[in-house]
Amino acid sequence: MKAAVLTKFGSVETAFELKEVLNPTLNDGQVLIQAEGFGLNYADIMAIQGDYKDCPPLPAIIGYDVVGKIIKTKGNCGNLKVGNRVTAMTRFGGYAELAVSESVACAVINDSLEVGKAMALTTQYSTAYYCFNEVQNLYKGDKVLIHAAAGGVGTALVQMAKDRGCEIFGTCGSDEKMEYLKSLGVHHPINYRKDDFYEVIKKINGDNKLDAIFDAVGGESVKKGFKLLGAGGSLVVFGAASITGKNIIGKLKTVLGFGWYHPLKFIMSSKAMIGVNMLRIGDSKPQVLKRCLENVVKQVEDKTLDPTVAKVFKIDELAGAHQYLKDRKSIGKITVVW
Question: For the segment 146-166, what is each residue's pLDDT rounded down to a tens digit?
């Protein structure tokens, strides 16, 4: 099979080689998928730059999500069968024509669902579902802040918050994305390149505090966000995009920017900070992952959720696809097709 193999850290232009590699083998409970394509996630950019701790040793086939048809199963794979079209999460190995997925990390989808929308459901929409529905309870009228709200996970979180009837604050990095957030129903879009989100929200809210914050940026945004959070509120951290592309000094500043927190601080303020890594959830609680994935597929079928497709690239445009993501130009999910 063909695979885009990560052979060196550094530039997106030189990081990958398209190679013929051995077909993967299956363990019990796994399925083999003939992939239509694979999705890009910001963790891939971190892997390319050598900043992602979980990345396998080089040369490596990275990638977390694929869409395609099952061509082989092994052992107990539940209701999955050969011929099913699925959206699936992979624990790396996604940048290949043939991909292996745990059966609990797959959901059957309609043939009519376009590949870009289907691709958004695994890593991005499942992450959003877990953050929004599994780790806390939110209610109509609650105030929520979503960082990187125009990205794949951010868009999903906005749609979920809107459906719940929350008041939504969302950050982004351009005027174009500001308009996009308005179209999604964000009540208070904030361009972080022009305005300090902390000051904007303080001015709008006055003495009122936020009920939930979803942060994929990390660094100082976490420290500032914690100050905006009210009693009973949760700060859910599921990424650290601000650490990428920096030298060691810059990375250290970002890490220090998170702040330091003693358990007593959480007890006395009755606030929570929750870290989310869906790889760990998939490893330790696979049925939770399956529930998240199946629920977002159902909500797309019910038209409660509507994934935004940023762009679909061909495999020979792989470097450009990664650059598009790295430059934070994307609105929604980026897909690469074979």
Answer: 999 998 899 999 999 999 999
Within a domain: residue 291? no
User: Which residues of 80-222 form beta strands (DSSP E)?
Assistant: 85-89, 98-102, 106-108, 143-146, 167-172, 188-191, 210-215
**Model confidence at 254: pLDDT above 70:** no
Close Cβ partners of 270 (under 8 Å, ≥ 6 residues apart): 231, 232
Structure tokens at 243: 């650490």
**Is pTM, for the whole model, over 0.85?**
yes
Give me the half-sphere count of Cα atoms (radius 13 Å) on the Cβ side of residue 101. 36
Residue with tokens 């292996």: 100
Tell whether 44 and 108 lie within a shared domain. Answer: yes
CA distance 85 to 330: 26
Q: Supply the CATH number for residue 52's domain.
A: 3.90.180.10
Residues 154 and 262 in one domain: yes
- The upper half-sphere exposure of residue 20, i.e. CA atoms within 13 Å in the direction of its Cβ, equals 0
Sequence letter at residue 173: G
| DSSP annotation of 60 | B
- Asked if residue 328 and residue 260 are part of one domain, the reply reads no
Residue 137: CB partners within 8 Å, gap ≥ 6?
Answer: none
Among 244, 221, 234, 231, which residue's Cα sits nearest to residue 157? Answer: 234
Nearest residue to 92 (alpha-carbon basis) of 102, 83, 82: 102
Over residues 41-74, the pLDDT tens digits come to 988 998 999 988 889 999 999 999 999 999 999 9
